[in-house]
Design goal:
The chain has about 250 residues and is mainly alpha-helical. Helix content is about 65%, strand content about 5%. Helix 2 packs across helix 3 (about 60-70), helix 5 packs across helix 7 (about 160-175) and helix 7 packs antiparallel against helix 9 (about 185-200). It is elongated, with a radius of gyration of 20 Å.
């Protein structure tokens, strides 16, 4: 597999934020996708630095940096005399935005997908309930603007998906809990990449914006129980939609 010439920003491959990946980032992304998709299952020993860099046509420094990235995300472990081995899934940093991005670049593992939505079902309904108690008027305005942008741009458009992320991240912020707030980047990534995956697989799928409206109206009205239930319904329906397109 050729990564392209090693200069400047690399091969023209983009990061999730739209900026070009450098060579080591491209290598890390491709290896990360191979690991998460099961092509390189846990326990697999990757090629050594010299062999791998020759095969990928990148420098040893770039390959070494790529392995460092994967190691920091818990996907691999490098040991002297053993080499670089794919780590057990329990060590993967699954809420890392890059790991979530890589997960949805191929067909997501059904168990991981179910686990992801199970986590969202634990976190987001309670965050919505807290937000209904604690939200500020400014946060309500931000969520309302995000909803309007979702309507205007639709979730098939990058701008619409960015508004969707903003809606969910503002919800977590409005919950007023520092520990919930620390999960924002992971929840944002989960929302973004599941939505992008659904749009890629089935552009004419069900409109999810009315589900968000139900959550917003409950939070704006400070209706705690309704906010909780509306978010449960939103997450459950999103899981159903994602599962349907994943199996199509």
């Amino acid at each position: 597999m050729t990564m392209g010439k090693e200069n400047g920003s690399g091969s023209g491959v983009m990061r999730p934020d739209g900026k070009p990946l450098r060579i080591h980032g491209t290598v890390a992304r491709d290896l990360g996708i191979s690991i998460i998709s099961g092509k390189f299952p846990p326990g697999t020993v990757l090629d050594n630095e010299v062999t791998a860099s020759d095969q990928l046509k990148v420098s040893r420094t770039a390959y070494r940096e790529a392995v460092r990235i994967l190691s920091a995300k818990g996907l691999v472990e490098a040991r002297p005399k053993i080499g670089t081995r794919v780590s057990p899934r329990k060590r993967w940093h699954l809420l890392d935005p890059d790991v979530l991005y890589w997960m949805f670049q191929s067909e997501p593992d059904e168990e991981l997908l179910a686990n992801l939505f199970e986590l969202r079902r634990i976190i987001e309904p309670e965050a919505a309930a807290l937000a209904a108690e604690r939200r500020t008027e400014e946060q309500v305005k931000v969520m309302e603007t995000a909803l309007e942008d979702m309507r205007v741009h639709t979730l098939s458009n990058e701008a619409g998906r960015a508004a969707d992320q903003l809606f969910h991240s503002t919800m977590l912020e409005a919950a007023g809990n520092a520990f919930l707030g620390s999960l924002t980047s992971g929840v944002e990534a989960a929302v973004s990449w599941t939505t992008e995956f659904k749009e890629r697989k089935s552009p004419s799928r069900r409109d999810a914006i009315p589900d968000h409206v139900q959550v917003f109206e409950a939070v704006a009205a400070k209706n705690v129980e309704r906010a909780r239930q509306a978010m449960i319904e939103l997450v459950d329906q999103a899981f159903t939609d994602t599962t349907v397109v994943s199996r199509a």
